[in-house]
Specification:
The protein has about 150 residues and is an all-alpha fold. It has seven helices and no strands.
């Protein structure tokens, strides 16, 4: 790790220098760095170092709140959930799945569980929204290929 608790380490001194060059005093830079270190420790402690887990948790709550807020629209609950998920993916890069049929098909074809797929993505630091897109694209490519050759 570049940053350690030792404020005299080379990595720490480099970050302090960058902060100072952006107008912070040495004291402000040290306080900022201590805060960042504490934040990293908390993410490690509560989310195994995977910030996307915290983001997904809160994005899921926000999606639910938005679905409740827009429940009066003339959309089925599934379409509304899809719309809110897509919106959150695009507005804040929320690590949420659109839960499209291609995802279920992929899991079935590969004898995998959705939770395991998401855990693998998290382990590799791949946003599940990107994974969603890749699986959907793969399914469309497969469908097009089978339609032309099948």
């Amino acid at each position: 790790h570049l940053v350690t608790h030792d404020l005299n380490s080379r990595g720490t001194q480099t970050i302090l220098l960058v902060l100072e060059r952006h107008g912070l005093s040495l004291d402000q830079a040290q306080q900022t760095l201590k805060l960042w270190i504490k934040a990293a420790e908390m993410v490690e402690q509560h989310y195994g170092g995977k910030l996307q887990l915290a983001l997904r948790k809160h994005a899921e709550n926000l999606r639910q709140e938005l679905c409740e807020m827009f429940a009066g629209l003339e959309l089925t609950p599934d379409r509304l959930r899809f719309a809110m998920t897509l919106w959150l993916q695009n507005v804040v890069s929320a690590p949420l799945s659109l839960e499209q049929p291609s995802l279920a098909a992929f899991c079935e074809e590969n004898d995998a569980k959705l939770e395991s797929l998401f855990m693998a993505a998290d382990k590799l630091n791949v946003n599940v929204a990107v994974l969603d897109d890749l699986i959907e694209l793969g399914q469309r490519t497969k469908d097009a290929s089978e339609g032309t050759h099948g």
